[in-house]
Every structure is written in C-alpha cells, then in structure tokens.
C-alpha cells in the first residue's frame, strides 16, 4: 500500500477527528494570535464542548423569553405614557393662496391646538420656548386651551399672559368644546381671562391682520362640536377677493348646518381630534370624537378645493397616552398661488 503523505494525512484527520476546515483554520488563527500572556487554552477554546457544559434547559429559555417580553412591555409603557406625550414635534406646512398680498409671502404662522392645560407647568413652558425659537409673526390657537376639569385658572392664565406679552396683538384664539364644558368655570369667564391676557378671541367674527400695510381676513367661529359656530355671521363684511383663513376647533365645521355652502375661504385650520392619540401603522385611529369617525383625523386634506389642516394638538384627553401620534406645533408659511 502506498504511503500517504503527512500533509494529506493531517488534512483528513485532525486531533483524532475527521477533518473540519473551519476548526483547522480557527486553530491556526489562534496559534498566531497567542501572546506572551495568553495560554493556548485562553485563546483557543477546545474543539469539542467540555463535559461540564450543558445545553440551556427549557425552563431557562422560558425565563429568558419572559424577561424579553417584560422589557419590551416596560419600554412601550415608558414610551407611550412619558416620552411621546412630551416629545412635541414641529410640522411645517406650505399653503398656496390665491390673491395673497406680497407682504404675507414671508409671514410665519404658528398654530397651537388642544393644550388641555391644568396650569402653567413644564409642558406650557416648553411650548413657550419652542414658539420663541420659531419667532412667528402670528399665533393661532384652535380651541381646548383648558380641559373640562381644569380648576386652577390663575395658573393657566399665567401662560396666556406670557403669550400675550411676548406677541402683543398677534395671538388669536377660538374656543373649543372643553371651554364650554368645564365644570368649574363658564366659557364667558374663560373668554374674559383670555382678553385680559392680551389674546384676541374670535367669536363668530373676523378681523383684518396686517403685514406691510396689506391685510387678509382671519375668520374665527365658536365650537362646531357644540353647535355654537356661525360662519355666515363670522364672514360678514369681508371682501370677496381678499384671502381668508378660517379658525375652527373641529374639522366638523365642514358638516355644520351653519356653514353656508356658497361662502369660500382659502384655508381652514382645526384641531380637536388629537390625531387619535394612539395610531397603529396602516390602521385608522381607534377613537376620534367626530361625526365622521375620523375621516379627517390629522394632517392636510382638500375639501371642495379648500385646504383643511387638522392639528394633532399638544395635550391629552381621556387616557394620558400617545403612540405614533406625537404632539405638534404647526408652522405655516403662505405662498401666492399663480
């Protein structure tokens, strides 16, 4: 029988086992990497498991799965109850408007909505700071500045006073359903406090807003959700060819029987829905308190040729939770429609 060369023999059998190229290469690598302070045993684990090594038991695997599940659950709770509700996002919106005066093409408008304030707390202070950094020309607030159970109105008014002081004659508000449904203070008192704070309340009325001696109309209606809106009255004495921005608390303004179909505005800004607060990917939000069950849940829509924007809001209502629906401050810039 022909004698087998030593190299060939070593390739067929290594360490008394049938040859494994992977193990052989790893062993060679380990030998070259070994340092003066390392031993072969430290650098290169044995090719076969030691008798002491045992496979993981089913019980241990079950405990590991439970630990992973609990970690994910705790992370989800932290994210939904703590992180996202306080993670206010800035949404930028560019809207083309017919007959827009030249002075308004560089104007920056901030929309706030649904703060549901209980006092002048960290959230309100954060909003003030973010608005200060944006440095807007106008601030429009589309209702639900307070919650239906807000009691400390003096503290809330401090927030309003800061807005009025920093942006005199530039802050405009319409009321929402929570102003009308508050169990401690009536809407007339809330309106009075807002006016005393230097904030203009538009109660089914309009006002000219100026920029470089040019103007457009800002139109505001009382809460459509409560049936207190009157768009026909709000549009009285407006000029047909001058652009009009409509503020309403709820997108339900488009269904209102008090909404004359022949009247046209150039942009509608609303809130109320909170975007649903909890929104799973590819699914419509489970709960939105509107007559159309969330057809206009959040974002930009077009209704009969008019842009309608629905803001996520900043505060919370019902469960103190947000998921995939962060609070927002909307920054709107107008462009002249050619």
Write the layout of secondary structure elements.
Elements: H1 6-12, E1 13-14, E2 17-18, H2 21-33, H3 40-43, H4 58-86, E3 89-97, E4 108-112, H5 122-134, E5 138-142, H6 153-166, E6 171-174, H7 177-181, H8 187-196, E7 200-201, E8 205-211, E9 214-220, H9 231-234, E10 244-247, E11 267-270, E12 299-303, E13 306-310, E14 328-336
Parallel strand pairs: 3-14, 4-5, 5-6, 6-7, 9-10, 10-11, 11-13
Antiparallel strand pairs: 1-2, 4-14, 8-9, 12-13
Helix pairs in contact: 6-8
What characteristics describe this protein?
alpha/beta; six-stranded mixed sheet; 9 helices; 14 strands; globular
**Helicity, as a percent range:** 25-40%
Average pLDDT taken over every residue: 86
CATH architectural designation of the largest domain: 4-Layer Sandwich
CATH homologous superfamily of the largest domain - what is it?
Metallo-dependent phosphatases
In words, what does this structure look like?
- The structure is a single chain.
- By secondary structure, this protein is of the alpha/beta class.
- It has 2 domains: 19-48, no CATH class; 87-336, Purple Acid Phosphatase, chain A, domain 2 (4-Layer Sandwich), CATH 3.60.21.
- The protein is 29% helix and 21% strand.
- It has 9 helices and 14 strands.
- The chain has helices at residues 6-12, 21-33, 40-43, 58-86, 122-134, 153-166, 177-181, 187-196, 231-234, and strands spanning 13-14, 17-18, 89-97, 108-112, 138-142, 171-174, 200-201, 205-211, 214-220, 244-247, 267-270, 299-303, 306-310, 328-336.
- The strands form 3 sheets. Strands 3-14-4-5-6-7 form a 6-stranded mixed β-sheet, covered by helices on one side.
- Helix 6 (153-166) packs parallel to helix 8.
- The relative contact order is 0.15.
- The model is unreliable at 1-19 and 35-43 (pLDDT under 50).
């Amino acid at each position: 029988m022909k004698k087998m060369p030593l190299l060939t023999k070593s390739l067929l059998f290594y360490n008394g086992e049938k040859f494994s190229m992977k193990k052989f290469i790893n062993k060679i690598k380990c030998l070259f990497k070994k340092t003066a302070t390392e031993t072969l045993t430290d650098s290169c684990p044995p090719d076969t498991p030691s008798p002491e090594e045992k496979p993981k038991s089913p019980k241990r695997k079950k405990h590991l799965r439970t630990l992973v599940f609990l970690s994910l659950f705790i992370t989800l709770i932290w994210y939904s109850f703590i992180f996202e509700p306080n993670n206010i996002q800035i949404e930028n919106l560019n809207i083309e408007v017919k007959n827009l005066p030249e002075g308004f093409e560089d104007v920056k408008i901030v929309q706030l909505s649904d703060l549901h304030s209980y006092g002048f707390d960290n959230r309100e202070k954060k909003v003030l700071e973010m608005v200060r950094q944006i440095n807007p020309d106008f601030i429009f607030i589309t209702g639900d500045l307070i919650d239906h159970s807000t009691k400390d109105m003096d503290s809330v008014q401090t927030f309003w006073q800061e807005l009025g002081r920093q942006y005199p004659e530039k802050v405009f508000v319409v009321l929402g359903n929570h102003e009308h449904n508050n169990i401690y203070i009536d809407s007339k008192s809330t309106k009075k406090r807002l006016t005393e704070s230097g904030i203009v309340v538009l109660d089914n009325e309009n006002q000219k807003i100026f920029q470089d001696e040019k103007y457009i109309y800002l139109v505001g209606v009382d809460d459509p959700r409560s049936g207190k809106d009157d768009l026909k009255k709000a549009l009285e004495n407006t000029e047909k060819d001058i652009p009009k921005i409509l503020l309403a608390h709820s997108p339900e303004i488009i269904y209102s029987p008090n909404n004359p179909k022949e009247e046209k505005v150039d942009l509608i800004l609303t809130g109320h829905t909170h975007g649903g607060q909890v929104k799973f990917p590819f699914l419509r939000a489970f709960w939105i308190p509107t007559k159309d069950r969330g057809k206009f849940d959040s974002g930009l829509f077009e209704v009969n040729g008019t842009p309608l924007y629905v803001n996520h809001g900043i505060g919370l209502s019902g469960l103190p939770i947000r998921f995939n629906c962060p609070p927002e401050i909307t920054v709107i810039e107008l462009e002249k429609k050619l």
